[in-house]
Write a structure and sequence with these properties.
Farnesyl Diphosphate Synthase; mainly alpha; flat; 2 domains; homodimer; prenyltransferase activity (chains A, B); metal ion binding (chains A, B)
Chain lengths: 354, 354
């Protein structure tokens, strides 16, 4: 979503590699099981797009920070990737997923390990879950440790910990709400689902990394507040676009089976918006059939589009991004910060499947 | 196990209460589900014996620290209690426990919550596990945050983070090994099981808190090394005594059903020692029956005692505590530190069921 300089990309990768190599080596010194845990943990934090570190660095530069003179920046940027990895590992565990990007995740690896050691299915469940709990703990701790020991001033560290503290708590609240919203017969209202997306993803993925970069660059409190509001809106729009991709996106857009959210009967704001239309009885029947296969998925897609819910979701993304651009303009942010937010907003718009 | 002054106990409780009240209030601001998570998280960190904070403070005083002039001490002490609470919550999740001290733990509370919201058994499992993952994350982060933001010098913070980093990694290695040792037909060797006890419990419960107190008091590297060796030995002895309690202890000693470890077919070093005797075939049959009820448990207890394994375990505790006292004497630790270690060793000896 953001073009960073080659130097910046290299420094982010370097900071992450140092942290991950260290984790791998130290785990290996504690025995064979620990070595396997270290490998799986490192693998889970490898191969992502590193969006969150890029946001930290982009915001830092947009507020006039000099990347040549901020040794703490890279550790803070890397910390946000590790925080993300921690949440993904624990989220996969909660969701019962055993793969990510087509290869076994921590749960999947340790399920296989249990079976290879003569365990049965119950042992595989147990060991997979145990390893995922622990891998997430290691990553969460490492993210925190990187910030606690980064070469920044005492007041920067204090401000970063306020942010990180919020990120951990808000994400936990969002993750829990996300699970609770799958329980019971009633579909939650649209605004509850959007609030959950904001808490679960937008805060730690957009708002907090942007704020971290800005505070390291010395942005004022007012500037940071405007940036955080815009970042939150962009994060919500990103998630809404993600729901559209999971529902209507092609295989190329989704990077997985098309209509996966329909197959999984996922309760997204898009579905909640459809429930508010007069077409809901037809849509509900179509959605109930969607898990049965591609033909039923295509039918559900048509019903959702015909109800106007798809169009309403696109409008909501557009409105949300307009509000993000508004926050940037109202607060008279530096020109580079306005450009950064506009770039992010455009990138989100470009993700909407047509 | 340790008698602290009323002032010290009050300060520890105060630091913990501040952290937990803060967590409760901030969680409540994020919605009803988050409020319930905050309550459950706080409850999971309440009501323990607060042994680990006491060890931090006792070591601090034993190395000449002045508790009236060390504002960071209490936060560091509190952090070790929260670290313990985090590990307990995640350990309960991994073990499938839904109660602790006779009341529902985080998993148990959220299982009930799912059912009350119209969920089925699968929803209860899902929500219980999700809440426990998140509660442990909140506690782990809070423990780390307390140390990251404690009013200590930069070099003290760096040293504390080396310690905390080891505590998190070593405990994870121990927890994973503990789970793996339940898998497969073969009983692991005694020394592997003792290593696991050291990693899973002794390090973060004894060695690290003692070392943290000593480093805040300005102990030398040699003194700290000797203290850590002794602390590790005491921690292992504590765990071996715990196994004896779980196997032979009365209801009063165990605070639960007598013979709970036998009922759960737990693979303890005690059992591994029994497997090294000529009586193993008889013991193995007795152990296989133990889960069936009190008469079978009493039979297994008699067979274990007759094999000499109980006696050997007591000897191993005595030997381990002797080595702890030896570390203290060899390093010429300050008199108060020698007394502290001797007090701890005696307290462990007194726990051995007779």
């Amino acid at each position: 979503m953001i073009a960073l300089s080659a130097v910046a990309r290299h420094e982010i990768d370097d900071a992450l590699n140092v942290a991950l190599d260290r984790l791998r080596i130290r785990s290996a010194a504690l025995g064979e099981a620990s070595a396997a845990l270290g490998e799986a943990t490192v693998a889970s934090a490898t191969g992502g797009k590193r969006l969150r570190p890029a946001l930290v660095v982009a915001a830092f530069e947009a507020f006039g920070g000099d990347i040549g003179r901020s040794p703490g920046l890279w550790r803070v940027a890397a910390a946000f990737e590790l925080l993300h990895a921690a949440f993904v590992v624990h989220d996969d565990l909660i969701d019962g997923d055993i793969e990510r990007r087509g290869i076994p995740n921590v749960v999947g690896r340790f399920r296989e390990r249990a079976l290879a050691r003569g365990g049965d299915a119950a042992d595989a469940n147990l060991l997979g879950a145990a390893a995922a709990v622990l891998a997430g703990d290691l990553l969460l701790f490492e993210a925190t440790r990187l910030i606690a020991t980064a070469p920044v001033t005492a007041s920067q560290r204090a401000a970063l910990f306020v942010l990180l503290d919020d990120a951990v708590l808000v994400s936990a609240a969002g993750e829990l709400a996300d699970v609770e919203q799958t329980i019971g017969a009633d579909l939650p209202p649209t605004d509850s689902l959007i609030r959950t997306a904001r808490d679960k993803t937008a805060f730690y993925s957009f708002q907090a990394p942007l704020a971290a970069g800005a505070l390291l660059a010395g942005a004022s409190d007012d500037e940071r507040a405007a940036l955080e509001s815009a970042g939150s809106a962009i994060g919500v729009a990103f998630q809404l676009a993600d729901d559209l991709i999971g529902t209507f996106g092609s295989r190329a857009e989704a990077g997985r089976e098309p209509g996966a959210d329909l197959r999984a009967s996922k309760r997204t704001p898009l579905i909640a918006m459809a429930a508010e239309t007069e077409y809901w009885p037809r849509i509900a029947s179509a959605l109930a059939m969607a898990p049965t296969g591609p033909i039923a998925i295509a039918h559900a897609q048509r019903e959702l589009a015909a109800s106007g819910a798809r169009e309403r979701a696109v409008e909501m993304i557009t409105d949300t991004l307009r509000s993000a651009r508004g926050h940037a303009a109202d607060a008279a942010l530096p020109r580079d910060a306005v450009v950064l937010l506009a770039t992010l907003a455009s990138a989100v718009e470009d993700r909407i499947p047509r």
